[in-house]
């Protein structure tokens, strides 16, 4: 399409724009700009630091979920947030390095955040 701007150029034209939707774990991450030797600017996401446990949207008395055999992190994202891509909110609320650790052990209880920045919350707990 002649004369159309690329997505990246369109974003640059909007002051305060962010390339990630509000539901993304990277939405609040700072965006940096690296200038290549030829002068081309390249946008990138700066480091995303995990919130300390207890501050990841989990109340003082967090809701819990007992893991069932065959569950996956995306199943939990769908169940509690209505979005399978929201599994990362649950991972941030638990002491895991790999999100697969959330559901690796059937019978284990994991914390479920009750809310998150920019949207709904985990109103159903099981």
Protein described:
With 126 residues, this protein is an alpha+beta fold. Helix content is 17%, strand content 14%. It has helices at 7-12, 73-81, 87-92, and strands at 31-35, 41-45, 63-66, 109-112. The strands form 2 sheets. A two-stranded antiparallel ribbon has the order 1-2. Strands 3-4 form a two-stranded antiparallel sheet. A hairpin with a 5-residue loop joins strand 1 (31-35) and strand 2. The radius of gyration is 18 Å and the shape is elongated.
Uncertain stretches of 5 or more adjacent residues: 1-5, 116-126
Q: Which sheet architecture does the biggest sheet show? A: 2 strands, antiparallel
Whole-number mean pLDDT: 74
- Helical element count? 3
Shape: elongated
Secondary-structure element order, N to C: HEEEHHE
Binned, the helix content reads 10-25%
Structural class: alpha+beta
Number of strands: 4
Percent range for β-strand residues: 5-15%
Quaternary structure type: single chain
Lateral strand order in the biggest sheet: 1-2
Rounded to the nearest angstrom, the radius of gyration is 18 Å
Distance between the first and last residues' Cα: 50 Å
Throw out a few tags for this protein.
126 residues, alpha+beta, two-stranded antiparallel ribbon, 3 helices, 4 strands
What is the compact description of this entry?
This protein has 126 residues and is of the alpha+beta class.
């Amino acid at each position: 399409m002649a004369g159309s701007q690329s997505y990246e150029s369109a974003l640059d034209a909007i002051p305060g724009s962010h390339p990630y939707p509000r539901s993304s774990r990277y939405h609040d991450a700072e965006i940096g700009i690296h200038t290549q030797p030829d002068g081309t600017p390249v946008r990138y996401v700066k480091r995303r630091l995990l919130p300390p446990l207890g501050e990841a949207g989990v109340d003082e008395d967090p809701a819990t979920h007992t893991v069932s055999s065959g569950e996956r992190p995306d199943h939990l994202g769908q169940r509690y947030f209505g979005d399978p891509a929201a599994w990362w909110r649950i991972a941030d609320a638990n002491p895991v390095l790999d999100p697969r650790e959330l559901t690796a052990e059937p019978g284990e209880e994991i914390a479920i955040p009750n809310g998150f920045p920019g949207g709904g919350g985990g109103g159903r707990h099981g």
